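[Discussion] Sanity-checking designs against the backbone

I'm trying to build intuition for which residues belong where. Below is a structure token string of 374 positions. I'd appreciate it if someone posts a full sequence so I can compare it with mine line by line.
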């Protein structure tokens, strides 16, 4: 089967975004924390390693390149810290993953939120210089719903309510800040923005609902999250493709939540105004493919069938069989393939080597060529 190559994400052979940090970058970041090198010296190392990473992405055949999130410590917090009215803050406890707890950091409000002059704009400009007629530069950021979740976690709830006693105003300002960022990003040349979102994986997990004393429901949160995400991307610039990646946690090869998409599929797949979904399907924790029948319009689905968490390569024929199974619920031409998540959602990275990381992507490419001819 052969499919005409496209220049708009998602691509048949695709990737979520983050890559393992090279040793020299990790060392430079540590030196910067210790005060032994300057910001300019750190930026120079970041630039060098990103340039090398981009070439590797091109060499393997990816049509959307990223900076690997090499300038970030976290997949989400660094973006929040770059918004106006937000500060980096330590907390008593990190996020709870299976058998591990993350670093204990958060994003906390200091004032009203706005999105102008975000540092990620310059980060994008650097990687965009390596784009060409066939390869686009992709920017990944956490979804607006993820920001709301951060601001309303128990450690932050009081400080958020002190600045935004009216939740309606909070939601409006989050959406407006994102719209400002999106406009400036597009003006910087971006044609593909990916919204990374763990909120959906969180609310389908039964543990999330245990011992709660509020009146929230999975229905009410689903509606709120999709309305907020849609409000943030409303009126997006022409020529900008916006997709979303749904995750259940990715920290040092561990995970945070379990649950099928079924309970949120009407809102997430039917109503979120994105062009495509990068979906985790590497383990049974994500459930089956039945909910893909709810993906509305001509939206595409990128099946995350290859794990970025483990070094062992998946069986090629088994992955192809799973693609065929998914195609029972959505046209195969609307399907694509990628790892289930990035290789380093935080700077610690997952427990595999850089060589194993590239072998995973080569497997995705080989399968894509066999299934779709591209």
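Best answer:
Here's mine. Compare freely.
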């Amino acid at each position: 089967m052969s499919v005409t190559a496209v220049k708009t994400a998602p691509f048949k052979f695709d990737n979520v975004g983050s890559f393992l940090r090279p040793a020299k970058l990790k060392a430079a970041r540590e030196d910067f924390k210790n005060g032994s090198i300057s910001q300019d010296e750190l930026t120079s190392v970041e630039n060098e390693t990103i340039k090398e990473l981009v070439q590797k992405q091109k060499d393997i055949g990816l049509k959307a390149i990223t900076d690997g999130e090499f300038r970030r410590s976290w997949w989400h917090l660094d973006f929040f810290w770059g918004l106006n009215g937000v500060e980096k803050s330590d907390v008593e406890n990190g996020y709870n993953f299976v058998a591990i707890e993350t670093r204990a950091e958060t994003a906390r409000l200091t004032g009203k939120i706005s999105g102008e002059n975000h540092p990620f704009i310059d980060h994008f400009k650097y990687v965009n210089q390596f784009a060409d007629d066939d390869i686009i530069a992709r920017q990944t950021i956490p979804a607006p719903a993820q920001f709301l979740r951060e601001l309303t976690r128990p450690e932050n709830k009081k400080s958020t309510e002190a600045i935004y006693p009216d939740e309606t105003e909070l939601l409006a300002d989050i959406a407006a800040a994102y719209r400002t960022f999106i406009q400036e990003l597009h003006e910087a040349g971006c044609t593909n923005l990916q919204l990374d979102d763990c909120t959906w994986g969180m609310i389908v997990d039964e543990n999330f609902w245990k011992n709660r004393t509020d009146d929230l429901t999975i229905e009410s949160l689903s509606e709120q999250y999709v309305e907020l995400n849609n409000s943030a991307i409303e009126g997006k610039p022409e020529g900008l493709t916006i997709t979303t990646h749904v995750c259940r946690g990715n920290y040092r090869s561990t995970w945070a939540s379990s649950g099928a998409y079924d309970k949120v599929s009407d809102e997430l797949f039917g109503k979120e105004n994105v062009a495509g979904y990068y979906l985790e399907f590497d383990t049974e924790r994500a459930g089956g493919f039945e909910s893909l029948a709810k993906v509305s319009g001509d939206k595409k689905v990128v099946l995350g069938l290859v794990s970025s968490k483990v070094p062992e390569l998946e069986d090629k024929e088994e992955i192809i069989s799973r693609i065929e199974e998914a195609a029972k619920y959505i046209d195969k031409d609307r399907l694509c393939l990628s790892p289930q998540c990035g290789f380093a959602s935080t700077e610690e990275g997952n427990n595999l080597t850089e060589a194993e990381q590239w072998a995973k992507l080569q497997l995705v490419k080989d399968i894509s060529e066999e299934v779709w001819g591209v």
